[in-house]
Specification:
Layout: H1 3-21, E1 23-32, H2 42-55, E2 62-65, H3 78-87, E3 91-94, H4 107-121, E4 127-131, H5 142-154, E5 158-159, H6 168-180, H7 187-213, E6 218-224, H8 227-242, E7 245-247, H9 250-253, H10 272-279, H11 294-304
Parallel strand pairs: 1-2, 1-6, 1-7, 2-3, 3-4, 4-5
The structure holds zinc ion.
Zinc ion binds near residues 99 and 134.
């Protein structure tokens, strides 16, 4: 083949590649203002998280507020922290007032709780019309599910779904508990477990998307307002980029066509993609990543993060 022809073929291949290979992900944080962890105060954590997101070049993450948390001792100063997230360019949204399990709550009580949070939130800068179900619990029966689908529309809200379900909070909690028990942890190993688990989970759902939708949607990663996020979000973003991911805004993620889908299933607790896959007939047993599991994460934490043989 002539060099010029070979060059042109190569150039065309390179041009075509990014669109095919692009993996997009937005970051979202739940339970704002969240209880403290083992390493910093809630104020220190918010300051660190805002700085880390800026350093990582994350233009807009989502912060889902549980307004009832503002009444708890750790919620002191919470409104100022929420406003600081908004002032840093991040999106603010509804994660209910009382963080209720919907399947255990009367429909009218549940709707009132969500609207109560909305009444407080809608005056805030950065506010978006998104509601994220606590525990991703959409009711577990058709009556509850459809009642909330209607109630959200009535209030002009849309489902603030995730596509990537994980137990980031458990990796954080394991370290808090170990410290409280006086056990020594390897912080680099703790960071690596967090980063590796979340990148692995993202890729698990990306594969599910390609198999189910035959395309890559803009993903939404479920995170919580934890110390481990404030400490290591820069490392997480770096690892995601190294793995081929582009960080996008929450606004871009929720402009994806999957935002308009109401999956015809009751398998809704693992996020939007798993629901779409379940509605398409996939075995629910295949829709949960092995590390979205407290026992497995605890095992890995004990094996890799706890410093063995101290004392
Ligand atoms: Zn929550």
């Amino acid at each position: 083949m002539r060099p010029l022809v070979r060059f042109l073929i190569l150039a065309l291949a390179l041009l075509a590649t990014p669109a095919l290979a692009e993996k997009r992900i937005a970051l979202s944080f739940d339970d704002i203002p969240r209880h403290e962890g083992g390493f910093m105060t809630p104020d220190e954590r918010a300051i660190a998280l805002i700085a880390a997101l800026a350093e990582a070049g994350v233009e807009q993450a989502g912060f889902f507020v549980t307004t009832g948390n503002l009444d708890d001792p750790y919620g002191k100063g919470g409104e100022a922290r929420i406003r600081a997230y908004a002032a840093a360019g991040h999106a603010i949204a509804n994660h209910s007032h009382g963080h209720l399990w919907y399947h255990q709550t009367e429909i009218a009580d549940y709707i009132a709780d969500v609207y109560r949070a909305e009444d407080w939130l809608e005056r805030l800068p950065g506010k978006r019309p998104w509601f994220r179900f606590p525990y991703l619990d959409e009711g577990r029966d058709i009556e509850r599910r459809d009642a909330m689908r209607a109630a959200l529309k009535t209030r002009g809200l849309s489902n603030g779904y995730v596509t990537i379900d994980d137990y980031d909070w458990h990796i954080d909690a394991l370290a808090t508990k170990a410290l409280a028990e006086g056990r020594e942890i390897d912080r680099d190993a703790w960071r690596d477990l967090y980063v590796e688990t979340l990148v692995g989970t993202a890729n698990f759902y990306e594969k599910m998307a390609l198999e189910t939708l035959a395309r890559s949607p803009a993903h939404v990663l479920l995170l919580h307002e934890t110390d481990i996020a404030a400490l290591y979000i820069v490392d997480l973003v770096k690892a995601l980029r190294a793995d081929g991911w582009t960080i996008v805004t929450m606004d871009e993620a929720y402009a994806d066509p999957i935002a308009a889908i109401e999956p015809d299933t009751l398998y809704l607790g693992g996020g939007r993609l798993a629901a779409i896959a379940a509605a398409a007939g996939k075995d629910p047993g295949s829709l949960v990543y092995e590390r979205t599991d407290e026992t497995e994460l605890t095992r890995l934490f004990e094996e890799r993060v706890i410093v063995q043989g101290g004392e």
